[in-house]
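Hi support team,

I've been running sequence recovery on a batch of backbones for a student project. Most finish fine, but this one hangs at about 90% for roughly twenty minutes before it completes. I'm not sure whether the input is malformed or the queue is just slow. I've pasted the structure tokens below so you can try to reproduce it. Let me know if you need the job ID as well.

Thanks,
M.K.
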């Protein structure tokens, strides 16, 4: 059957599939573009089934920020080539905005927002199914997301240069956005968090007691060959060092390891002439 090139191009525009595949779909549908699209969607469902178990080690993070709020989300895929695809990036940018506007909770993963509506009215899952089954033909999923809002401070967003790590930091205080030093602090803290994937909490009070007990048990065992009267002191010293690695405010500051993060926050607050407190942070990654 002779299929007009104009019709093939129209199907390509509507599906973003290769011209030859569009032509074949139209031939199989006897030139009916709606039937061709329906058949391609059915074929896409079969493709999804074949791809669903493939491992996803690549992806990107996407962010959206306005005023004193910000959202970030990770979208995962199989290859870096797909992560550079325009359709993949369009999906990620729209998803970040919809999370910013309509996410039902501050944190979650793809399963919790599968039915969230995208800008075209379809759900997140419906768009993912189309991308995997008809356009990208590679396994994809939505990873973690986070959305911070504050009424008495500012939210800073940091995206690592590889676009695979995004960090949000909430700072509490009056008129913080008007101080350049505080805005720089937000960026620096985001960088600090990006480089430390092992972070467990903001302060020591945030660390799970069971986690601390287990670490102490390990360090006591490591000191078993030491004199008995020194074992506890050695174990406590190692535990204190370990806590400095996993507690954000206790960590050595990334730009000056002679001071802790908390000491640097205090110094910036003094420079700005206003109290500044780090209230929460989040780190999400895509294949990193």
């Amino acid at each position: 059957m002779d299929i007009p090139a104009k019709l093939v191009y129209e199907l390509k525009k509507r599906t973003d599939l290769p011209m030859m595949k569009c032509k074949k779909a139209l031939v199989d549908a006897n030139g009916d573009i709606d039937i061709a699209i329906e058949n391609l969607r059915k074929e896409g469902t079969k493709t999804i089934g074949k791809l669903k178990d493939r491992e996803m080690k690549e992806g990107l993070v996407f962010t959206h920020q306005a005023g004193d709020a910000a959202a970030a989300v990770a979208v995962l895929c199989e290859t870096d080539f797909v992560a550079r695809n325009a359709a993949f990036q369009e999906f990620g940018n729209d998803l970040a905005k919809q999370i910013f506007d309509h996410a039902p909770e501050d944190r979650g993963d793809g399963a919790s927002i599968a039915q969230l509506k995208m800008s075209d009215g379809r759900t997140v899952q419906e768009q993912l199914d189309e991308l995997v089954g008809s356009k990208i033909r590679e396994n994809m999923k939505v990873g973690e997301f986070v959305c911070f809002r504050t009424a008495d401070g500012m939210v800073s967003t940091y995206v690592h240069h590889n676009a695979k790590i995004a960090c949000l930091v909430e700072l509490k205080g009056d008129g913080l956005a008007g101080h350049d030093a505080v805005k720089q602090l937000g960026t620096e803290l985001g960088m600090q968090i990006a480089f430390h994937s092992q972070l467990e909490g903001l302060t020591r009070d945030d660390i799970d007691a069971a986690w601390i007990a287990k670490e102490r048990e390990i360090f006591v065992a490591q000191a078993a060959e030491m004199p008995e009267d020194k074992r506890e002191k050695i174990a406590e010293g190692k535990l204190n060092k370990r806590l400095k690695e996993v507690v954000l405010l206790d960590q050595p500051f990334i730009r000056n390891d002679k001071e802790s993060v908390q000491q640097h926050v205090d110094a910036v607050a003094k420079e700005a002439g206003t109290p500044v407190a780090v209230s929460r942070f989040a780190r999400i990654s895509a294949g990193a």
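--
Follow-up from support: It reproduced on our side and the slowdown came from queue contention, not your input. Residues 33-51 form the longest helix (19 residues). No action needed from you.
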